[in-house]
Amino acid sequence: xxxxxxxxxxxxxxxxxxxxxxxxxxxxxxxxxxxxxxxxxxxxxxxxxxxxxxxxxxxxxxxxxxxxxxxxxxxxxxxxxxxxxxxxxxxxxxxxxxxxxxxxxxxxxxxxxxxxxxxxxxxxxxxxxxxxx
Length: 133
What we know:
This protein has four helices and three strands. It is elongated, with a radius of gyration of 21 Å. The chain is mainly alpha-helical.
């Protein structure tokens, strides 16, 4: 085989390896989820790998109105804050714990879903709408 032929074969093998790596990562990352419940167990949430609410369970004994909304927000934030750690494991296994790809994926989740702050229903205010968005 010529030098060009062996170089092309090596590139083809690298491309095939990267494709398999990406497919394995995609399958593993799609299984990432966060779960949280409030202290009394009356509100439970689950989120998918993107932080989207996938399950919400509210017991009949749960608070109502603004108190319920606050509990849901706290649980949602707690569930979402779990995603970065799980992504660290999945991406680290696929790309290496210190790889730039892993650091970017984990950093994006940490930026988007920071550790929840303890908040009371009275301290929460709705986000303001920005024009032009």
